[in-house]
Amino acid sequence: MAGAQGGIARGLGRAYGDAAIGAKQTFQISALDRVRAFDATTGLLTAEAGLSLAELIAVFLPLGFFPPVVPGTKQVTLGGAVAADVHGKNHHRDGGFGDHVESLLIATSGGELVRLSPAMDPELFLATIGGMGLTGTIVEVTLRLRRVETGWIRRQTLVARNITAALAALDAADTAQYSVAWIDTVANGADLGRSLIFQGEHASLADLDGPASRARFPVTGSRLFSVPCNLPAWTLNRWSVGAFNAAYFRSGASQARNARLMPAVSYFFPLDRIGAWNRVYGKRGLVQHQSVIPIETAPTALPEMLSLVARRGDASFLTVLKKLGPGRGLMSFPLPGYTLALDFAMKPGLLAFLDDLDRIVVAAGGRIYLAKDSRQSRATFEASYRALPRFRTAKNSLDPHGRIASRLSQRLGI
Amino acid sequence: MDKGTNGKTILVLGGTSDIGRATARHFAARGWRIQLAGRDPEALQRDADDIASRSRVAVTVHAFDVLDSTAMAPFIDGLPLLPDIVVCVVGLHGNQARAQSDLDHATAILRSNFEGPALILGLFAEHFARRGSGMIVGVTSVAGDRGRASNYVYGSAKAGFSAYLSGLRNRLAKQDIHVITVKPGFVRTRMTDGMKLPGPLTAAPEEVASAIWRAADRKSDQIYVRRIWAVIMLGIRAIPEAIFKRLSI
Ligand SMILES: Cc1cc2nc3c(=O)[nH]c(=O)nc-3n(C[C@H](O)[C@H](O)[C@H](O)COP(=O)(O)OP(=O)(O)OC[C@H]3O[C@@H](n4cnc5c(N)ncnc54)[C@H](O)[C@@H]3O)c2cc1C
Ligand SMILES: NC(=O)c1ccc[n+]([C@@H]2O[C@H](COP(=O)([O-])OP(=O)(O)OC[C@H]3O[C@@H](n4cnc5c(N)ncnc54)[C@H](OP(=O)(O)O)[C@@H]3O)[C@@H](O)[C@H]2O)c1
To answer: How confident is the model over A218-246, as pLDDT tens digits?
Structure first.
């Protein structure tokens, strides 16, 4: 490791931690946003890596195409989506973003342009998918878009009274294209892990028939409101979050079973409609803890984690549980299991608490998501990302002089 | 669900610039056909492909150098058709300190921001007058509103260009040919890459593009992008020269 040497590519900076901050330099690539080619018969798109999913959707949804995988915000670039091999609410069915990539053009630290594909060089390709920018700067991405009949999602809500029921419901929801559970992290005892499960399907043209007249591709995107300033640190506490969660759970439960049509953009990106939502966490900001727990160990590990969290009582209302399948890249986060994402306002003692959660995660055979991480230890990382030696070999062959380094790669010794 | 073309064409001189690119995209998304002109046709082709795949409108690419005045008439004759709107985004910021002693550099700045843009738009004015229709958009700068120590070579060229546009507008108003003067303040582009810009006063290239679109729609004469710049420049122009010369702003 060469001290504060090296740089890293940065897209729209939506990673929560230090992944897109260079050891020394940071290369902003979001202006490289040209569409290079699009085939409307196959949905095959080649675009520069700075193109955002927001732009992609604005341009291609009206033509009947949607990204095959979307994270919880559309303000991410193609490069960022590939580098973190992002997962959506359909990972159990469709895999991660990287599973839909056919080839990549990367600029190596030596200044060479290299085309990577599974056929030509599988190891380097798999190192770059989920490789957090550490193999080179992704310049162009070729991926296949999903054909959709409308810009609407048919959403159905299921209610789970506790964590066991929630896991069972997520398993049963496997047949749905999209599914995600919102968990009440304050409820404890018999209610521990009570959840609302939101299933979604792309609505067909026939689904739009009805009394209300609906545009096939609805125009959306307006902000609901912006959080005007940092809220005080005590905003999120057992009582405020508990009251919010109880109300949210009740209102969700009352809508259960009634399918509802909503614009795709509102279904997938609710947070994008609230400007500067992060200010809710106060000026010290937030820390996210996102882990994945294998199917076999989840029934014991998840309740153990949730009861620690419930005892603290200050995890935000934005807690989600999703089912994941296997990840494609060497360093991809997903593995067959359940992923739990928890947000906390930063405060003294929190980091030690998160280390406690990490111990449960590692013992259960799970891991922490690098795109959300700013604090896991090397030991946690090395124990859980088993393909690390293979990844290091691939990185070495593309970056022999170690010129690519982020704060994340320095911290974890990648 | 194509929006379809509206049959109109806009020519962007300086198509490789961030503002030019954003303007072309903005009009293409509203069904306009696009002509991109600049010194580097290969770079322009990438943008042409981008715009064509986003908006499914026809995009053509044309070699153009604003410093080559003898090639200007053949350039216009060589266009597949005379556009409805021509936007000139061409400009060169250069380096003020260097321009103070390097006359070639100073000349390049003066010619790229004033002489060249004025000549080509003047020639388009003749064609538009003959046809009896057309709109001319010149991108100049707030830097032309008052000469300042930090960039008066660039600023004075922009001032000349602004005055030229004003005269052209005055002349062509009687023939229903409209001229728009666009004065951006700070814009986050290649030109300002690496400079520290004040956030609230700095526009994205897309903002300039949509301001141009609105100005064309409303037939505005002169616009500032972000509008706060109109107020700022009013203040800056009002400072008496005796005081202004002592300031460093
Ligand atoms: C509200 C919110 C919700 C989210 N929901 C999800 C979710 O549901 N699922 C999920 O998987 N993630 C989620 N994320 C995380 C986000 O999708 C990832 O962090 C994504 O990588 C961000 O993309 P970006 O363009 O902002 O990249 P950045 O944050 O700028 O960079 C992220 C990583 O990608 C690398 N990178 C970026 N561009 C390039 C490039 N051109 N070449 C090489 N490397 C590059 C960077 O080096 C860095 O390692 C969420 C984030 C937010 C803020
Ligand atoms: N950025 C700002 O803060 C700001 C503020 C006020 C006004 N402006 C004005 O906005 C316009 C666009 O600027 P920008 O910020 O987008 O910067 P830019 O990217 O540097 O744009 C300059 C453009 O002019 C072209 N050009 C320069 N010399 C040329 C020549 N001899 N022949 C043909 N084309 C030539 C460049 O083409 P090449 O690619 O071939 O070099 C480029 O397309 C300029 O007129 C600038 O003065 C900018």
So the answer is: 876 566 677 788 888 777 788 888 888 88
Q: What domains, with CATH codes, occur in chain B?
A: 9-244 (3.40.50.720)
Residue A34 to residue B1, Cβ atoms within 8 A: no
- A63 and B46: CB-CB below 8 Å? no
Give residue for tokens 């001189």: B13
Smallest CA–CA separation between A353 and chain B, in Å? 38
Q: Is B18 on the interface with A (CB under 8 A)?
A: yes
pLDDT the model gives residue B1: 33
Can you give the pTM of this predicted structure?
0.90
ipTM score over 0.85, yes or no: no
Best of A28, A30, A35 to substitute, by most chain B Cβ atoms within 10 angstroms, is A35
What class does CATH assign to A7-148+381-412? alpha beta
Structure confidence by residue, pLDDT tens digits, B124-181: 999 999 999 999 999 999 999 999 999 999 999 999 999 999 999 999 998 989 999 9
Q: How would CATH label the architecture of A152-377?
A: 2-Layer Sandwich (3.30)
Burial environment of residue A44 by CB neighbours within 10 A (0 to 12, 13 to 18, 19 or more): middle
Q: Give whole-number Cα distances, A183 to A43, A166, A306, A340, in Å.
A: 36, 9, 10, 9
Name the residue among A316, A324, A313, A335 with its Cα closest to residue A167. Answer: A324
CATH 3.30.70.2520 domain span(s) along chain A = 152-377
Q: Using the beta-carbon criterion (under 8 Å), do A217 and B47 form an inter-chain contact?
A: no
- CB contacts of B2 in chain A (<8 Å) are 63
Residue range(s) of every CATH 3.30.465.10 domain in chain A: 7-148+381-412
Sequence-ordered list of residues with C-beta below 8 angstroms from that of A375, at least 6 positions apart, any chain: A17, A287, A351, A354
Could you tell me the distance, in angstroms and rounded to a whole number, from the CA of residue A185 to the centre of ligand 1? 25
Q: Tokens 């911290």 sit at which residue?
A: A411
CB spacing of A36 vs B49 below 8 angstroms: yes
